[in-house]
Design brief:
The protein is of the alpha/beta class. It is built from twelve helices and twelve strands. The strands form three sheets. An eight-stranded parallel β-barrel has the order 1-2-3-4-7-8-9-12, surrounded by four helices. A two-stranded antiparallel ribbon has the order 5-6. A two-stranded parallel ribbon has the order 10-11. Helix 3 packs across helix 5, helix 5 packs parallel to helix 6 and helix 6 packs across helix 7.
Length: 346
């Protein structure tokens, strides 16, 4: 299992807790990134939103791309999975940016291609907002251009959404044959695109018994297309404590949902503009990305056992959230990641 985490570019993950002691600042995220790679974390996902959907639109949120470029220069081994939304970036220019950051990092950049969902944000920033299937049609062309730009020069492309003529991109990325491309989505359109043009599939939080059939489905799609196996990641919010009473107390704190929180309006927009396989509960609102459904909540041994279940279901990567991030990541690393700290039961 590889351990990744969401970089707190929004100042936290809990919509009902105003101050999580993890400010959306360069000082905090740079300190977190440098520490994380020393205590056993392999990857950080840097989300891309120009507005803060967790704490409210008036709260600060860090830019994904400039933050990632800076993190590339101050870290040594951490993979930087940078989220990117095709509607906000011309593919050839984005391929150029990503290749440059990949060179700065020595080959540690990957992309998480995300379909835009927030109509209000697009309007505020003057970006076209496509409907669901149109967004994926655009993303398909976008991926074609990025892939070819990373692999060859002097090529031309003409599609419905994008065109380039005799494109040259140098230097190429360090990562070969290209930086890893992750993507997630639960609609049929999304899954078919991801199986065809991406390298890894990332999923919202769910228990292993729900994740396993999703992985089998994607694996079968890849096999039918004659493509190599994918990697699979799952989001999760982690709470690790030494006793079950302490676990219960912490879960009660983070799920004390207040519907008048500033982020609730933005959450409703996300629900209206995405297609999920299951109904999202009010508890899911309190922690983003359905993180609690993964069940990474308990004593160190209980969490180790749960991770074993995810491994057996085919998961390669956990994308974790914590609050407050730095302190809880230290606790998780010491009690779960650290070799010999716990042993998962077979």
């Amino acid at each position: 299992m590889r351990y990744g985490y969401w970089m707190p570019v929004f100042g936290g993950w809990l919509r009902n807790v105003e101050d999580e002691q993890m400010a959306a600042t360069w000082d905090y995220v740079s300190r977190l990134a440098r520490r994380s790679e020393k205590i056993g974390f392999d990857l950080s996902l840097i989300a891309e939103l120009n507005l803060n959907d967790i704490k409210g639109v008036d709260a600060p949120s860090l830019d994904a791309w400039s933050t990632s470029a800076a993190l590339a220069a101050v870290t040594e081994r951490l993979e930087l999975m940078i989220a990117v939304r095709p509607t906000f970036h011309l593919p050839a220019l984005l391929a150029k940016q990503a290749a440059n950051i990949d060179n700065v990092s020595g080959g540690r950049v990957s992309l998480n291609v995300v379909s835009s969902w927030w109509a209000e944000e697009a309007k505020k920033y003057g970006v076209q907002f496509d409907q669901h299937d149109d967004r994926y049609a655009r993303a398909s062309e976008w991926l074609d251009v990025v892939d070819r730009a990373w692999k060859q020069d002097h090529f031309s492309y003409s599609g419905r959404y994008y065109s380039v003529t005799d494109l040259v991109l140098q230097p190429k990325p360090v990562a070969k044959p290209r930086p890893v491309i992750y993507a997630g989505g639960e609609s049929e359109t999304a899954k078919e695109l991801i199986a065809t043009k991406c390298d890894a599939y990332v999923m919202h939080g769910d228990p292993p018994e729900r994740i396993a059939p999703k992985i089998r489905d994607m694996a079968e799609r890849r096999e039918r297309k004659g493509l190599p196996p994918m990697k699979y990641g799952v989001a999760g919010y982690a709470v690790v404590r030494e006793t079950e009473a302490a676990v219960k107390k912490e879960v009660e704190r983070i799920t004390d949902v207040k519907q008048n929180a500033a982020g609730y309006k933005n959450y409703e927009q996300w629900l209206a503009n995405t297609q999920l396989e299951q109904r999202v509960s009010l508890e899911d609102y309190s922690v983003s990305n359905r993180g609690l459904r993964s069940g990474l909540v308990g004593t160190p041994q209980q969490i180790a056992d749960r991770i074993g279940e995810f491994e057996r279901s085919g998961v390669d990567l956990l994308l974790l959230q914590f609050s407050p991030q730095l302190e809880e990541m230290e606790r998780f690393a010491e009690s779960v990641i650290k070799p010999g700290a716990v042993v998962a039961r077979a």
